[in-house]
User: Fold these one by one.
Assistant:
Number 1:
Amino acid sequence: MNKKYGVYICTGCGIGEALNIDGLSAAVKKARKTAKTHPFLCGKEGVEVIKKDIADEGVNAVVIAACSRRVNTDVFRFDGCIVDRVNLREQVVWSHPKGDKTLEIDHTQMLANDYLKMGMARIDKILPPEPYKLDNFTRKILVIGGGITGISAAIDAAKVGYDVTIVEKEDKLGGYAAKVRKQLPVNQPYTGLVPPIISDKIRELASFPNITVKTSTMVARIAGQPGDFTVTLKKPGEMIEFDVPFPLPPEMKVDSNGKELDKDKLIELYKDYNKGKNDILSFDPNGEKFGAVVLAAGWRPYVPAEGEFAHLGFGTIADVVTNDQFEAIAAKGKILRPSDGKEAQSVVFVQSPGMADDKDFEYTGSVTSLVALKQAKYVRDDYSDGKAYIFYQHMKTPGLQELFYKSLQQDPGIFMTKGEVISVSKNGSGLVVEADNTLLGEKIQVKADMVVIGTGMVPVTVDDPVINLAYRQGPGFRDNAIFNGYADSNFICFPYETQRTGVYAAGCIRRALTMEESIEDATGAALKAIQCLESSNRGVAVHPRYGDMTFPDFFFQRCTQCKRCTEECPFGALDDDEKGTPKPNPTRCRRCGTCMGACPERIIGFSDYNIDSIGSMVKAIDVPSTDDFDDPPMRILGLVCENDAYPAIDIAGLNRLQFSADVRFLPVRCLGSINVIWIKEALSKGMDGVFALGCKHGDQYQCHFVKGSELASIRMKKIGEALASLALEVERVAQFEIAIDEFDKVPKIINDFVKLVTDLGPNPLKGF
Amino acid sequence: MTADKAAPASGSILVVGGGISGLTTAIEAAEVGYEVFLVEKNPYLGGRVAQLNQYFPKLCPPSCGLEINFRRIKDNPKIKVITMAEVEKINGSPGNYDVSVRINPRYINENCTCCGECQKACSTEVASDFNFGMNKIKGAYLPSDLSIPARFVLSPKIIGTEDAKKCKEACKYDAIDLNMSASTMNLKVGAVVWATGWTPYDANKIDNLGFGRYPNIITNMMLERLASTSGPTCGKISRPSDGKAPESVAFVQCAGSRDENHLPYCSYICCMASLKQATYIREQYPDAKIYVFYIDLRTPGYRYEKFYQNIKEDKNIFFIKGKVAEVSEDPGTRNITVVAENAVTGAKIRQNVELVVLATGMQPNTALAKHPADLAYNEDGFIVNDFVKGGMFAAGCANKPADVVSSNQNATGMALKAIQTLVRR
């Protein structure tokens, strides 16, 4: 790209009053660029000035020194041009006092000068992105699981023209939905049970020529990347060479002293561990091509361990069963006792294991309460004198499902009470259930023919990765442990986001759901799969950087095969070969730049965001020394997450909160993308301190790229050695957490750090 | 080859309502490649969640996700946002709707830079609806810190006053147009998603719970604003009568919900909301006593259950199964006595507290006013979806009471339902 620069300085919104604009223009001139000023740059006339230069002068590299890039985004978007927005408004004049010209140092002016120089430095170093195009692209969607969720997802995607294949490990479709006697209502008014809807769904599915069904089939491996997955399918129980290899478990990677084994030994062990399986980088020539995956593999009934619910008689008394076992009995016909086949006219449903706790059983949800209500209704449907008792701690029928609960409350044969079941024992051929702290009295006893315990629905991802991704980081979703084994998203706002691009979970694999909820969830997952396909085809990123056309570029000649990028990518986008050279999979990538931050050789970058572009911005900052002033001000670099920290600083400015003008903010895509070299450069050129400001991490992480802020904090801690080699105190480098709504904390965080650094004294390297 | 038949990006989608559900439907559809019109009645986007301090169970700020969503909108020319607008009329059939949208005057045009000079010039103060009237704001104001569009608005209450003229004179950018009047915009769309959300049930209607009579009885949504940094007290939770830090707080669950006289259904979020709000109080007041009066604690699923179990560890939070029957005020201290019967022990409880929070439920906006469209509603005013007919769909809490995560799941799916309507043509 032959760059023709244009620098435009807005003097509106107080910028012109607070700053010496001639001074800024002079700085632009010094960089051999020309500046134009306008009192209202975002207005029609102001924008026209820029557009005219683009049209007449061929300007294509535009620096706009005005408001934050978070506003007027559309106004300052110029097709075919690269644009940098220098934030003179929110982060300079709105958050700092007007410089006092009578003093030796005009801090606010210096801040503006630096930001302008940083913007010009960046525009020098970036290029317009060119989208990554897949060599092969397929629009086919793979749905794993042929239960109600999978079937719904397949139909929803097929309706808009996509080819879909459902794989189901059982020999027929339907999943649990085909095993129930009746089901909960899926529609308003939610008052009665309905016959299972699954056969209608299967019939509807059959009417779509673009849906292929493969029963008795499971996924051996999914290799490749969104838009171009190569999938090997197999029969359950088969062992094949394209079964996915597993990474070595951590304990196998170390010797008896806990020291990491050397590379060759690790390779040998890995091969041995995965004997008979092809490596992830060897693609199945007979594999089927898919573009995206919906994971709807569902759940299995919880199987209590031996003696786990002994106090409830489970395991010792034949007529004490789980809700799943009860459903199987009910599906066969009239409800009969397992022990002697006698009619079970009185059934007690236990919703909580008790033991002085009001918790429900593990892996339950509102669906478990609803199932108890449903099964109580079976008893009443089968026997006119039948009685059902439900002991619950909290009847969990939220939302409109309350209406179903209410409809059963009218039934004189169904008794429901809060209460703790203490014991279940045999009484002749029947049972006696003893409960405490009920609404009917302290200790009560109920005679029953059967007892049903409301155990939960275990997501199958607890047992098995299911998706079997041929990814170097491993075959499953990472961090399912945070979610009790569910393939859930950590994000409330973005419930379909997982750490594996192009694979979207739906249904009971992400939490215990009713069929109605599962059907709904399936539609959302189908949409996300379609969206991922279309984005991959256009060469743009998916959420949260949807539309970003950049992707990481590697300068492989200098790669030392350290594997850090492969290991640290939150999305498993990189697979390395035996030597450790990373193989990028750009459509798996979410463009956070964590690989760029990880790389010690600095060989990874994006066209508009790279080691050089950010490094040059750091270098553009003036570091005054005693050559310039008797008492030179501190210079501190603040590397800030553009998703939360940068907006928080803007909002602080919007609210006219004031903070030290000694800090230069530099927005980064994610703290994970911070390369230590920038920090070293800042310090070796004499800056007095560096901090990173980003999202919260830990189990409740708020980082939009999952791991970025956490990885940054690890790297920040490790930087101590480098500082020591420069004879600098470790306190000069820090990381702080901030949430976007904590804008009121911005001044304190900044000012406290400036004070800390000031107390340490100037960087001794200053002026050299 | 499937290339030609898959989802052609033609036809556009109208999303009504710019809260979290509407934003989700609009953005998800646009990121597949469809053109979307997003119509919002308020001068800002974000809806109900914009008023929340934190989400349960992560205790993270809703503005974090809103910021990302707003960036997705700003970066995506396929989404056209129309604020201060309401659908006036809609005719047609699936795939082909003519919509007229009424746009109410903002009195501030696209020249606005958010410099804030009009606000400085304006002396009239009006009650803040955003903060449920708990404070006053200038008649010229920015609706929220994340405001999208980033543009001030003039309260209709100052139009025609000297103040309005002063605002106009103060504006250097000719952004104030006092003659602005309502206008109509006509749109042709193929599908419509109604994400018109909910309103907190009017606590004044629950006579026995004293709201409106006693200042120290507030609603859960008011507490969200009190806890928010951008709220009327800059985030300090204090009781309305005297600004005192409450040493004891009672949460009254099912204030209107699960009640034949008010809302027969469960409002889904209030149990978790109160537990979350207990953490707000605990954060600010380590020793405050918290009493939660409930019928059932509905914390379904592993994440909510875990949240509840953690809160239960707090020895200064007391859970009482019992519906609050009445409240009274001590006129001297303005403390409130909450009367309930413990459903398990049968004991009558009279609990004196300094602040009462009513966990009021959600009522669909369509219970208060129906849309000018051919839609089916249930008895409580929620829109019933008809997927066979298609064309128009309800997303989020317009369809049923739901938490944010379920609303987002639902709203994502509704984007596909809308696209199905377009493709079927």
Number 2:
Amino acid sequence: MTQIEDYIPIVGQSTIDDLRLLGERLGGIVIQNVNSTSVGGGVAEILSRMIPLLKDLNVDARWDLIKGGERFFEVTKKIHNALHGKVEDINKRDFDIFLETSQKNIEELVTYGDIVFVHDPQPIALIKKRSNNKWIWRCHVDVSSPRQRVWQFLMNFIVKYDSAVFSAPSFSQKLPIRQFLISPSIDPLSDKNKELPKETIDAVLKKYNIAQDKPIVTQISRFDRLKDPLGVIESYRQVKKYVDCQLILAGGTAADDPEGIRVLEEVQEKAKKDKDIHILLLPQSDIDVNALQRASTIIIQKSIKEGFGLTVAEALWKAKPVVASSVGGITLQIKHKHSGLLCHTIDGAAFALKQLLNSPEYAKKLGENGKEHVRNNFLITRHLKDYMLLFLALYHPEDIVYL
Amino acid sequence: MPEYITAKEPFRFYTRKHLSELTGYRAATLQELRDTIKKVSGSCVYHHTHRFLQQHQHISPEPPNDFAYWITDVLGEDELGEKISSIDIIQFSTIRSLREKIVKTIDEYFKVKPSAKLKFAHPGEEFYFIKSVSFVLPTNYSVYTLSEFIDVLHKITIDSIYFHIFEARLRLEKADNDFSNWIEHSIGNQKLADEISRLDPYTYTLEDLRRTIIRIVERVMAV
């Protein structure tokens, strides 16, 4: 299991020392995380990594799950989509199902934490159990333009918390409680981000029949219209007239997502006459993603809408030059012309790709800057620091806190 | 020899960690930006004039100023962006006076170019006002001599250097940075204290600042 000391070669001894200082200040306080699943999904992934590290820093962090049946999770899936702004048919019966399951959890789950840290909407109603302890609602979802009916339903609970946490400034809403900005993070020691030997990278390329004889432009994303894979192909075609390169579009699509399957078919159709376009339907293999990113000359992320877009941080951590849309959390990760290039259109993306392919020194510098930016702001060690400060902030309302 | 002088009082290194608190305020036009700058807390003005230094510590030289970045990159008002980014923050001893200067700069620009009021940000590119909540805590390092001082400077986090140089002076409204204060009053070396005071820290990356301070102190010790 990864220990906090393992991060010293990456962020330095002094950064870890400072984390330990913060951990000492939280002695005796029990942090109870609550979410709806222990496996699958971003929240479970980050909790499974962070809780052992918090314990390693002497923070008494624990993790509990709520229970729910199929109907409950169908409703919470609708809530999730509606928070993303999608039109969903949510009726009174759906809200009743949500409240019934929530009531069972309220009766069964013991909220023993000095701080109860509730993740996402599924367990949000637990706030009814509030006593003298502190409560935080952590919203991992892009709520920049939620469907109002669902948001107002959730607001009934949110306002009873001490604080809320969002991942990007544009996700924040007018709220009568304190709200904090905490970006997600990547783990540099995970399979998706750790250093890989050249043999592993070569083996992955061979597995997917990708030659290394010309520059590689890659987008790693599920096949979803919001990731604009068709737009990526159009940008690539504009570039290909001037620079001989190849394109990898790699990602997954859920078997139960008919729209995703349709998008994949359209992408395959658009790409079929070009042997330099590689459409890879990846299994859940973090090592493969890691290897493809490391083998790439440029990473592109041409999303039309994006929650946070951690694939950008993953690419920057590998010191890759990145071309990405100026949307959502991507603008926190890339400062245009400093740590990557931002674009708004297919033409803009094509121009940026050409620039980087023709100016390798410039591309290298952007990649190096990007890596340092991620080291300082988007690694799990920064996330640990922010969570510990968040816990401390619950006991200190002032702007300058002397510990 | 300067390195053997023992200070009357030790220098205790502190570190400062910050958490970003969302205010819920946002601006889509220059007028909204100006009006909101006037009413937000000092912690908010501080955040947007200093965040860049810490988050982009490897990029230099770069305007340490979110307002300037947004005015230039989103609204396309390069001239005003340049004026705001060129505000000599080191000359201001309080956030209040810095805030007044920013507002005055925008007001003067409006007089020369009233059409700037018509510019607006596209949805999603608005300016979001955030404030810094600072947590100040002592590290385990405490020194009595310049030699020990340099040893610790080499190994502390840049958060600690940031706190003693930027935050102590402007946000905590001390007359000078903490290093110069200690060197002048406890070590008794006014010349060295002045030399560090004269640095414009806003034109360095934090790592460059660390190296520069170490070099200055080492030079004095070698005399």
